[in-house]
Amino acid sequence: MGRVTERRRVIRVRDGVVSSRPDTLVAEEPLEIRLGGKPLAITMRTPGDDFALAAGFLVSEGVLGAAEEVRSIVYCAGATADGVNTYNVVDVQLAPGVPVPDITLERNVYTTSSCGLCGKASLDAVRTTARFPIADTPPVRLTPGLLAGLPDRLRAAQQVFDRTGGLHAAALFSEEGELLDVREDVGRHNAVDKLVGRALTDGRLPLSRAVLLVSGRASFELAQKAVMAGIPVLAAVSAPSSLAVDLAAETGLTLVGFLRGPHMNVYAGEERIVLPSGV
Q: Is 22 within the bounds of a domain?
């Protein structure tokens, strides 16, 4: 829809020289996700792949697990007085027979672009039982050398980041290191939801042989999204949180942080990493 970036005037100062020029910024707009016509969540996101974002969000919430569980995802009329569609509200209709969760004030979630699960009533509310237990899948085996090459491949695929410098990215790789999909968004959790939602609609869940790489830190909500999609390996170029490490240990998720060239820290699930003997 041409809304991924916007132009703004900026005063540029370089070595004492002042000039005026247009600058390209990443767009950020609210998206309201409705389920069966009822508001469920609002997230600040970069427009684009909105249907995938909504589907991926519902996977992480434990509502969806297969493409056939979705009857439709459509844009709704916006909140303007004249009823013009703002393309900032989507409604997900579940297929007949799919249980509709109880949508209460406690469950209604406001998510910012930096935190996917802010507003949850309690920590227990996000420890959703996964449909695709990672421990039940044949183990993926990865070498440190393969992991070391993934961040550069992700960075090379970030087309909008090159124009704005203001986006997070998430990518799925095969166990052989093949880039399967990449998504960018102002919110790191949105980028992951777009990946997972696209995998859902393509009938590729669970992603039991995939590696998820994120361009920032590995927070609890990103670890949870990986677990809910059946992804066995989550790698991040920055640090994980303590709660992300705890969740990884509980669920069998392999969690790698500070993945920068040949250097990395393995926080959980080291059995999937082919490490030198004696470690």
A: no
* Res 112 pLDDT > 90: no
State the DSSP string of the chain. Answer: ---SEEEEEEEEEETTEEEEEEEEEE--EEEEEEETTEEEEEEEE-SS-HHHHHHHHHHHTTS--SGGGEEEEEE---SSTT----S-EEEEEEPTTPPPPP--TTT-EEE-SS-TTTT-S-GGGG-PPPSS-GGGSPPP-B-HHHHHTHHHHHHHT-HHHHHHS--EEEEEEETT--EEEEEEESSHHHHHHHHHHHHHHTT--S-TTEEEEESS-B-HHHHHHHHHTT--EEEESSPBPHHHHHHHHHHT-EEEEEEETTEEEEEE-GGGB-PPTT-
Query: Looking at the 3D structure of the chain, how many domains does it have?
Result: 2
* Catalytic pick among 67, 76, 115, 148: 115
For 81, the domain range is 29-125
Q: What confidence tens digit (pLDDT) does each residue in 165-203 have? A: 557 899 999 999 999 999 999 888 999 999 999 999 999
pTM of the model: 0.87
Asked about 76 being catalytic, the answer comes back as no
Q: Are residues 179 and 230 in the same domain?
A: yes
